[in-house]
Amino acid sequence: MRSSIGDLSINRGNMDLYKKTEEFMIDICTKTGKLRDIEHQLNTAGWVKKLKPDADEALLTAAVAHDIERALFGDWKHGSMDSELLTMHQEFSATIVGMFLTKEGASLDFIDRVQHLVHAYEIGGDNDQNVLCDADCLSFFEQKALRQVKNYLKNGRMKEWMKEKLDYMFNTRLKSSEAKRIAKVWYQDAKDELEKM
Fold it and tell me: Is the pTM higher than 0.85?
C-alpha cells in the first residue's frame, strides 16, 4: 500500500527505521483487520512529505506510527474531541512507538524526537508537530470525512456532533493556511453532505 499522494520510498538516506515502522504498522493493521487505518497512516506520511519536502526520517516515522495505539487497541475514544482522551491517546501511541523503536535499535535521540512529535500530533506545538497535525488532518479530510459523516449518522451520532467534529478538525486542528486551503474542498463537501441528511 502507498499513500495516495506519492511513493514514500524517495531516497532520504537509508530510512531503515521508517521502513521497519511502516512494515510493522502494515502488519498490525493487516492482522487486526484495520486496513483503512494503514491507509490513513501512509497517507499522513505522504502529506508530511508534501507539506515539508525535506522532512527527516523521524518526522516520517512519527507520521506513519502516530495512531499505533489505535491500531493495536481500537478507537476507544470513538472520534472524541475531549482533550484528556486525545492526550491519553497521544501518550499511549508515543510510548508504544518508543518501545518498538528501542527494540529496533534506534538511538535515544531518534526515539525522543519521534515520541516528541507523536506527543502533540493532535494539537500541534512546534513547527514539526504542526506539520504532523496538519498532515493527519489532511488525511482525515481526504480519506475519511465524507465516510464518517455517513457512518456516524447511521450509527446514531447526532448531526450537530458531526458538524462540530468537522469544524473542530478544520478550524482548530489545522495549523497552516496552506493546509486549510488544501482541506477546504473536502471540508465543504462533508458539510454539504451533512446538510442533505
Answer: yes
